[in-house]
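Note to self: the last two entries modelled the partners one at a time, which told us nothing about the interface. This time every component goes in together.
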Amino acid sequence: MTRERPTTNVFLVGVGGQGIVLVSRILGELAFAAGLDVKQNEVHGLSQRGGSVTGHVRWGAEVHAPVIMEGEAHYLFALEELEALRWAHFLRPDGLALVSSQRIPPVSVTVGGESYPEDVVERLTGFGRTLAVPAYQAATELGNTRVANIVLLGAMSTECAEFSEEQWKAAVAACVPAKHRELNLKAFDRGRAAAAAAGVLPRRADA
Amino acid sequence: MLELMSGNEAIARGAWECGATFGAGYPGTPSTEILEAFAQYKGVYAEWSPNEKVGLEVAIGAAFAGARAMAVMKHVGVNVAADPLFTVSYTGTNGALVIITADDPSLHSSQNEQDNRNYAKFAKIPMLEPADSQEAKDLVLSAFEMSERYDTPVFLRMTTRICHSMGVVALGPRRAVPRRPYVKNANKNAMVPSHAYERHFALERRQTLLEAESETFAGNRIEMRSLQVGVVTSGISYQNVREALPEFSTLKIAMTYPLPHQLIRNFASQVNKLYVVEENRPFLEEEILATGIAVEGKQQLLRVGELSASALRRRILHRDSAQQPAVEGLPKRAPQFCPGCLHRGIFFLLAKRKYIVTGDIGCYGLAALPPYNAMDSLICMGAGLTMAHGFDKVVTRSGNPTTEDTEGNKSPGSATTTGPLSSASSVVGKPPAERVVGVVGDSTFFHSGLTGVANTVFNRGVSTFLILDNRITAMTGHQPDPATGLAIDRKPAPRIDIEAACRALGVRRVFRVNAFDLPGMDKLLEAETATAEPSVIIVEGPCIFTDRDSRQPTFLVDQARCVKCRGCFRLGCPAITIEDGEVRIIADLCWGCGLCAQVCPKKAISQAQPEAKP
Ligand SMILES: Cc1ncc(C[n+]2csc(CCOP(=O)(O)OP(=O)(O)O)c2C)c(N)n1
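The predicted structure of the combined assembly is written out below.
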């Protein structure tokens, strides 16, 4: 382990059932396989049933707390737009928001009469650089919407130079069941292509 | 070898490495994965008991028999197991007995935030507390050794963030530990009053030895940095202090009870200012203050919820780590019943009927939230049934207080005038707002529902009980229970029939109904809440997680017929949404349960024809 290596913080958010836990595990495995210290926290229990869920992954020379401080996330990994906005304040000013262009209206919107926020991507650029990827659409095209999380992970890999593409793919392969390996690696590649096509929006100057 | 492990997995690993052969407990977030992981190892016996009291008692039996045994439960589980707990502290354990308690600050998945460090002090049982996965594994080893050396149960206290955080753990081999011989000794093991009196002295002698042990316990360690401020802390708070206040010296406590008072005094003398940082109750603070050491509690402003690193930095350094405030006014996203969940239909009906629903804990606890709004109370496991009986005795049918004597004379005939049969006439036609039903799930029924049913029958009650039977403990992640037909190893086990159990307890009116048959359930609700004797309605349906084959073809909305009344939204189904002004069903999520088609007043929802398989 390199002592000087600063800690990298990835804050993952989404809706219960979208696969936040799997992505946390892949990121943990990625850093662990690279010989780094890792702490990773995930949510179990009730909120997994369609509630707002978060996950934390931190790696570096020596990591203490498993939970990221507000304003300290290098990456905000968001599988849903409203959840991205809800947790945007965890992002560092020089951080990157990765957001899947998917909107899942909660009950408070469908029944409760509240409104789903507009212009999420635009608002996210007020917190940091932003990369919006049509991950859900890409997953649909691959025939399994459950891999939207891996599409977004592929997009993240293009913006995280700490690990090589081979390291990323090895971590994905290690964490998914063998029978779904090929599909997940395809989804990962789709994410890489989608990131290149979408491009990173800069943080708004007025923010 | 190194491995990335959760705190829970590390505990299981540690128990296995140090030769533990026995584990029992009851599921409960955040502790559940400990026993699940332990059961995977070779050479051990593990079981899910019906509740924590049973789990602890079988573990005591195993320890008496000479094994290294552990009992595993969440914080509120210790309340259920408290009865044997206080007395096994007197008897000691012969073999080793480690009790894992997992507390849940911030109530990620619990009904309260109780601080179980108080149980250690209350029952005079030593307590160890790890701060990460590696230490969790190390302290399990210490706990088993301490238990044998001092002939005492030992607590290992976890909290949610330690349980569910992954960290790097160094693995070791398993050590074979021979079973300690069992020797009959009623003076020590059978706590009749005279024996227990003597054992209370033994407990006090042990306490003195444990106080000395704490002073030299390796996990209690001073780490000197700045001489300005020293922080006494433990568990997850230690990690948050290191993160938010990296300059401060720390005394990290791993043995939280009894505390190393000399060591604390020694640490205090080396720094200008002494703080305590701990979550929840001021347990360390009060203990330290009681010995006359001046210490400043840093959590006074935060007795509720977790004490995160962000919060610590704000409170102690008056610095916000966030550069911008959180976006305000966003719509909340509460958890919901899954698409296809068996709990949806019955609560839809209960809300419509406006009954008083004394509820319980399980996935169905979500019925207390919008859009279901169909559960009046939720206290603890089992209370769904027992509280209905209490409610009934007061507001509705049995024990009708019309015979009340304002002079205070006892009525010799009260037993006959308030029995279920005599109150029959007062039942029919009750307004819905006075009809009460009690609700539990199948796992909760076996945990602490049986005694509630017995109580109602025995006391001439008339309550209507709903047992929501998905044949699994769903909420905590699908552990088998006595209704499942599988044991913890997922191999076949006898299935206990809930209907037969209720009949054996003396309930004559027991019904089974399909959870997706709205008219059938509605009829039963109407009839049974108007009946002057106890009834049990077993609502049956699979959990979609454990029965993937239960999925049916998706339902679709006919836009030409839909008038957008949003009636189907009352079902609170994540698969039903509104997009571009149209009500739609997300085929990806729809489980094909068909409740939406049953509630649509315009018959606008129907099932898609299954596609012919190519
Ligand atoms: C004393 C106690 N032990 C454990 C728990 C955790 N817990 C809450 S509900 C529940 C059981 C849920 O199973 P069931 O009643 O079958 O309902 P389901 O979730 O399957 O709908 C458990 C284990 C608790 N809250 N209290």
